[in-house]
Design the sequence.
């Protein structure tokens, strides 16, 4: 249940993007609209706490007014999408998911989407230049003024270096790398059992978060996996197969995990055990977020 609710706002961005994204800047403004909507849906910001977040809680800040730049880090299926809305609500800064932006571009059939489609479906990584361009445009939007949460970016040390250079230009730096840790064998079960409701992004699991339509002993299929709220069929992401996941995990260990060594010397990496129930993960996350 919490899994379903927790990620229900993510695809808002996807839906908005799918309708119109045809360039990097359009990706940015649509994502900002989604972010505005998401912020409207959560509680009003607490000015005092915001001030503390922006000014006092950045071990790596270069200036008192530096942005909060957080990287939500972890393998596919670690629970980044489920935990992100709570982090967004707590810090009152937007979540920028390169995966969501790219999927929206693919769904819209834009030039970016055409370039990304096949490599995404096979579980590979799109080019550093492509994702860096998307992020460069997106973080210039007004809603990123106070900071932002990067989800799915950077994915390579090269991307991390390009991000650092980008931030340096405005006197900013990565303030927190929140790394969710889950063993690979657990991820396979989580990912390969995941079904989503495309229109809303509500996420289900054949074992851990079953839709009401899946009766005891039923085989998961489009006929038995229906969205609780609309009754519409659920679908599996094209890259949520065992084959694609193997490639994604391989890429994660070889290319993405070294990013932790890149940021460790700055003292900004915080690791959290994410192989526990979502509420327990959130308790650990809260403990390392800026107070
Ligand atoms: P995600 O939803 O974060 O798992 O991303 C889905 C897919 O989008 C990945 O498997 C990649 O093909 C692509 N992708 C997302 N973010 C990046 C990135 N930072 N660098 C390269 N490819 C990415």
Sequence:
């Amino acid at each position: 249940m919490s899994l379903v609710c927790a990620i229900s706002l993510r695809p808002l961005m996807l839906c908005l993007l799918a309708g119109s994204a045809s360039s990097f800047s359009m990706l940015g403004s649509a994502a900002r609209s989604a972010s505005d909507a998401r912020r409207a849906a959560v509680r009003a910001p607490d000015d005092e706490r915001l001030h503390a977040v922006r000014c006092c809680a950045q071990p790596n800040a270069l200036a008192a007014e530096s942005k909060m730049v957080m990287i939500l880090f972890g393998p596919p299926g670690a629970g980044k999408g489920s935990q992100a809305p709570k982090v967004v609500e707590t810090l009152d800064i937007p979540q920028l998911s390169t995966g969501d932006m790219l999927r929206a571009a693919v769904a819209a059939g834009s030039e970016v989407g055409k370039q990304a489609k096949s490599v995404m479906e096979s579980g590979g990584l799109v080019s550093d230049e492509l994702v860096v361009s998307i992020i460069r445009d997106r973080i210039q939007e007004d809603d990123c003024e106070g900071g932002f949460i990067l989800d799915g970016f950077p994915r390579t040390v090269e991307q991390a270096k390009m991000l650092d250079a980008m931030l340096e230009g405005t006197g900013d730096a990565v303030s927190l790398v929140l790394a969710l840790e889950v063993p690979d064998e657990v991820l396979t079960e989580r990912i390969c059992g995941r079904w989503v409701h495309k229109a809303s992004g509500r996420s289900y699991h054949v074992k851990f978060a079953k839709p009401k339509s899946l009766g005891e002993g039923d085989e998961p299929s489009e006929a038995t996996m229906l969205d609780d709220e609309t009754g519409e069929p659920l679908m599996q992401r094209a890259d949520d197969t065992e084959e694609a996941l193997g490639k994604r995990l391989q890429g994660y260990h070889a290319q993405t995990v070294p990013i932790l060594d890149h940021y460790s010397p700055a003292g900004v990496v915080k690791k959290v055990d994410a192989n526990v129930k979502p509420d327990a993960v959130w308790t650990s996350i809260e403990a390392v977020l800026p107070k």
In short: The longest helix spans residues 24-41.
